[in-house]
């Protein structure tokens, strides 16, 4: 069975989309890229097999456009993209195909994602390496890429970040007695994911004490 394309109309409210009419009736709509790649034109005969291929191509195009639009907001991990496309209702096979295509075009790169995420979280959010490591794990980043992203941080950057936060928090706790002040500051920095040794050094520095004067309260960071 086949039908004839009797009209192709540009959609007024959607960019680069076209309505396809078969035998005088609206049948489906396609993206411009699908229209061009399948060489659709008025008078073409559309068999059932060709229609199925067109609809599959359209679904593939929709998944691609949806992924690119979401990537426009910020860089994503492969797991984030997989979860997003799953929520959008795309089939598992198409999702994996889209992810591989995005990777081939350089739009998905877990190593680059992990590096950028680690730098941003440390420099702009004041999160320590333990916090960052857990976040990246939840985002599906492989352990070796997580470790590499943290290794790429500049030497001393985590300690500097912890110290800057410690200075601000220390001032906020100025009405507390020193023992309570130091305890609350330690807890605050630990909750933000900084390793115990870095926390100890930051607290000692803002409190005007030598690190060796601080009690050994942290667990081994190894």
Query: If strands are numbered along the chain, what order do they take across the biggest sheet?
Result: 3-2-1-4
CATH topology of the largest domain: Arc Repressor Mutant, subunit A
Structural class: alpha+beta
CATH architecture of the largest domain: Orthogonal Bundle
What's the number of domains?
3
Domain RecX second three-helical: 109-150
Protein name: Regulatory protein RecX
Keywords: Cytoplasm
Family: Belongs to the RecX family.
What's the helix and strand layout?
Blueprint: E1 2-10, E2 17-22, E3 25-31, H1 32-37, E4 45-47, H2 48-71, H3 78-87, H4 92-104, H5 110-123, H6 129-138, H7 143-151, H8 157-172, H9 178-191, H10 196-206
Antiparallel strand pairs: 1-2, 1-4, 2-3
Helix pairs in contact: 2-4, 3-4, 5-6, 5-7, 6-7, 8-9, 8-10, 9-10
Commentary on this structure:
The protein has about 220 residues and is α+β, with helices and mostly antiparallel strands. It folds into three domains: about 1-105, Winged helix-like DNA-binding domain superfamily/Winged helix DNA-binding domain (Arc Repressor Mutant, subunit A), CATH 1.10.10; about 110-150; about 160-215, no CATH class. The protein contains ten helices and four strands, in the order E-E-E-H-E-H-H-H-H-H-H-H-H-H. The chain has helices at about 30-35, 50-70, 80-85, 90-105, 110-125, 130-140, 145-150, 155-170, 180-190, 195-205, and strands at about 1-10, 15-20, 25-30, 45. It has a four-stranded antiparallel β-sheet with strand order 3-2-1-4. Helix 2 (about 50-70) packs across helix 4 (about 90-105) and helix 8 (about 155-170) crosses helix 9 (about 180-190). It is rod-shaped. The model has no long low-confidence stretch (mean pLDDT about 95).
């Amino acid at each position: 069975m086949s039908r004839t394309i009797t009209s192709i109309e540009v959609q007024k409210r959607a960019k680069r989309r076209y309505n396809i009419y078969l035998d005088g009736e609206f049948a489906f709509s396609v993206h411009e890229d699908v229209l061009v790649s399948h060489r659709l034109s008025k008078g073409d005969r559309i068999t059932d097999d060709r229609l199925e291929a067109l609809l599959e191509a359209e679904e593939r195009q929709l998944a691609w456009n949806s992924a690119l639009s979401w990537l426009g907001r910020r860089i994503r991990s492969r797991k984030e993209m997989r979860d997003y496309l799953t929520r959008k209702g795309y089939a598992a096979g198409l999702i994996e195909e889209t992810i591989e295509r995005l990777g081939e075009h350089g739009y998905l790169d877990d190593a680059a994602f992990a590096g950028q995420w680690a730098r941003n979280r440390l420099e702009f959010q004041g999160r320590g390496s333990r916090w960052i490591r857990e976040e990246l794990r939840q985002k599906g980043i492989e352990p070796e890429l997580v470790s590499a992203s943290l290794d790429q941080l500049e030497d001393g950057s985590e300690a500097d970040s912890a110290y800057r936060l410690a200075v601000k928090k220390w001032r906020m706790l100025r009405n507390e007695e020193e023992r309570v002040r130091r305890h609350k500051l330690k807890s605050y920095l630990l909750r933000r994911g900084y390793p115990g040794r870095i926390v100890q050094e930051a607290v000692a520095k803002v409190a005007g004490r030598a690190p060796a004067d601080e009690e050994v309260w942290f667990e081994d960071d190894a």
